[in-house]
Amino acid sequence: MKAILLNKISVSWLEWALLLYALVFFTLPGGINILPGLLFLLGLGLASSGSWSLCVDERRLFFAFTLYFIAAWLGWGFHQEPLNILDEPLKFLMISVVLFVIVRSHVRIAFFWAFVVLALLFSAIDAIWIGDYAWDGSRLAGTVITHPLYFGNLSLLFAFLALAGWIWTEELPSVRMKRLWRLGLILAFGLGVMLSLLSGTRGGWIAIPLAFYFVFYHLVGSAPYRKIWRILAISILVLGFVTLMSFENSVQQRLVLAWHDLVGYFDAGEVSSSLGARLEMWRLGVELGSESPFWGLGQNGYVAGLQALIDTGQAHPDLRQFAQLHNQYLQEWVFRGVFGLGALLWLFFTLLKFYMARLTSPCAATRALAVAGAVSCFLYLDFFLSISMWHLNATTLSFLIVIAFTAGFILARENAVLTS
Q: What angle separates helix 364-383 from helix 208-219, to the nearest 10 degrees?
């Protein structure tokens, strides 16, 4: 009876809820919380009725999510920090319940890819055409995600999700449907990359060549003349880079500015520039983190330590405005010590192991979801090098939602095969 109820709920509203969710994901303040919140409440209701029956992969994923929360909870208790420090880590527990519901739902996978395409489309309309957008000089951002860095990174994430969706179209029976879906997905990919370029997010651009080749490699994995296609992918990347550097544009300006920042920092100790401030924060982060490498300092301890260095003239006063280290790996270690950094790395090891095991699946839908999940992990691992992504609701929850849907749909399909 519970399975029938969940099936009815999923088919009747969850599929269409995904489409409506795309409308508010990037455009409505707090809109990103709506669907996960509903699924979380539904999951608690199912769990309270005694229906917690987990497969091996679910247990591994749940353990990784829980371990990350425990690391944050121990740091919070050890450093006696405010309760709001646990706001983002709590989402890792919540997403476990969301994943539990998705695995037991019967949502058609087409609605997920439609969600990806529509979310990018509405994001572009919101940022460019509505007119209520935020600019930092010539850098584009959205009305909800107003910082260009985060806006550009999330646009890039959804761009590569759309490109991975092309793999799924292999299983569509109609040639006409294949063409329509592929057109929509490739346009969404181009739109996401364009939004990233307009945002000036240099840290995210580093991942574009590798992410593109990774997705393209699996996209043409079983196609005739696949070696030629892979060479073509590399040629497209090289040609695109040469084209961008051949005439004056915002991308070229951002790359030239990065070089000037690096020269200024290493030659003159300039820390007021974007990259100069980052490099100085990382240097000071290592210095402060070395005081308590195992337990970490906590966020308040780091801020107090940085202020002490500023007061004694050992750090530039401009760094006072940053309460995070613009590097997720370093921040986990400085704030939560070895256990915090280890929990972060274990989470990504678990996720990548889960997805990589399914990259060669004979099922195109499973393969597409695995590529989408894996490239999401790769992108965030790159984003972490230049910005702390897990201290904001939008950037934390975006990643977790993608993981919940890709992993959840994979396990749902595998469970359906096992029970059929």
A: 170
Token pair 């319940």 in the structure block, residue? 97
Which residue in the block uniquely carries the two structure tokens 């439609």? Answer: 114
Cβ(378)–Cβ(204) below 8 Å: no
Both tokens of 91, joined, read 């989402």
Whether residue 274 lies inside any domain: the answer is: no
Q: How many structural domains are present in the chain?
A: 1
Instruction: Report the run of H or E that residue 181 belongs to, with start and end.
Output: helix 175-199
Express the helix, strand and coil content of the chain in percent, nearest 5 each: 75, 0, 20
Between 257 and 290, the higher pLDDT residue: 290
Residue 25 lies in a domain: yes
Question: Would 66 be classed as within a structural domain?
Answer: yes
**Cα-based distances in Å from 119 to 27, 123, 286, 317:** 9, 6, 38, 40
- Residue 158's nearest CA partner among 61, 33, 22, 28 is 22
Residue 156 and residue 162: Cα distance in Å, rounded? 10
Unique residue bearing structure tokens 């409440």: 41
Query: Is residue 87 situated within a structural domain?
Result: yes
Q: How far is CA 182 from CA 113, 168, 249, 354, in A?
A: 11, 10, 29, 26
CB burial of 153-186 (b: ≥16 within 10 Å; e: otherwise) equals bbbbbbbbbbbbbbbbbeebeeeeeeeebeebbe
Buried b (16+ CB within 10 A) or exposed e, 382-392: bbbbbbbbbbb
Token digits for 324?
């995070």
Task: Identify the domain containing residue 41 by its residue range.
Answer: 2-224+337-419
* Max mean pLDDT range (7-21, 119-133, 309-323): 309-323
Q: Output the six-digit token pair for 71.
A: 């690391």
Per residue in 16-39, pLDDT (tens digit) is 889 999 999 988 888 999 999 988
Q: What is the 3-state secondary structure (H, E, C) of 128-158?
A: HHCCCCEEECCEEECCCCCCHHHHHHHHHHH
